Amino acid sequence: MKPAFPIVRWLALAWLAVWAPAYWRFWGAANFLHVCDIAVVLTCIGLWTGDSLLLSSQAVGAIVPDVAWCLDAGSRLLFGRHLFGGTEYMWDPQMPLWVRLLSLFHVVLPVLLVWAVGRVGYDRRGWALQTGITAVLLGISRLFAASRNLNYAYVEPVFHRAWGPAPVHLFAVLAVMALLLYLPPHVVLLKTLPPPPGVRSDVPRE
User: Fold this and answer.
1) What is the CA radius of gyration of the chain?
2) Which end of the chain is less enclosed by CB atoms within 10 A, N or C?
3) What is the largest CA-CA distance in the chain?
């Protein structure tokens, strides 16, 4: 069977060969627990395998956060201030510039994923899978020190507080991500992109 992405999958593999060791060395292994960094790994796997479900889940998870990243970094670059925060590390002189520039994957990833899903079809199970992936990552993130606050497992980024005991806080963070960050792209992709091959297009799609 011909690969869905005969050229791009090799480019994805080459990217991983550069990006993953660099991030491991300069940011540490725990950094790969961030939802955005897991998205890079899973996207590359999806491009290699042509898996529409995996690519759909990452499209759902990446579009809104990566657009927010671009707006925040762009605001800092053009106007000298951040809109939301979260990209301050891009101006940290203690980190090599070339390593910081690797984070520009946030600019490319949403476009790449929409293009890829357009080729293999949008799997309506993507939203559920991405929510499940995020739930697992939140649970694991809670095992690390609160000072790291991986995936906001201890303190959320808007009001900078914890919402009750650990299970309550984790559920609240998951609910916000699933409903505010993941659901809108899911609805748009479901209505605008074709389903994967073999899925009847005349079946109601929510």
Assistant:
1) 17
2) N
3) 55
pTM of the model: 0.92
**Residues 6+ positions from 109 with CB-CB distance below 8 Å:** 39, 40, 43, 62, 66
**Dihedral class, residue 70 (left if φ above 0, else alpha if ψ from -120 to 50, else beta):** alpha
Give the number of residues written for the chain.
206
pLDDT tens digits for 131-155?
999 999 999 999 999 999 999 999 9
Q: Please list, in sequence order, all residues whose beta carbon lies within 8 angstroms of the beta carbon of residue 100, skipping any fewer than 6 positions away.
A: 89, 90, 92
Please name which of 126, 183, 177 lies closest in space to residue 153, comparing C-alpha atoms. Answer: 177
Alpha helices, H only, 80-198: 97-101, 105-120, 126-141, 166-176, 183-192
Give the start-to-end residue ranges of the domains of the chain: 8-192
Matching residue, tokens 């906001």: 152
Determine the 3-state secondary structure of 149 from DSSP: coil
Q: What is the DSSP-derived secondary structure letter of residue 29?
A: G
Amino acid at 3: P
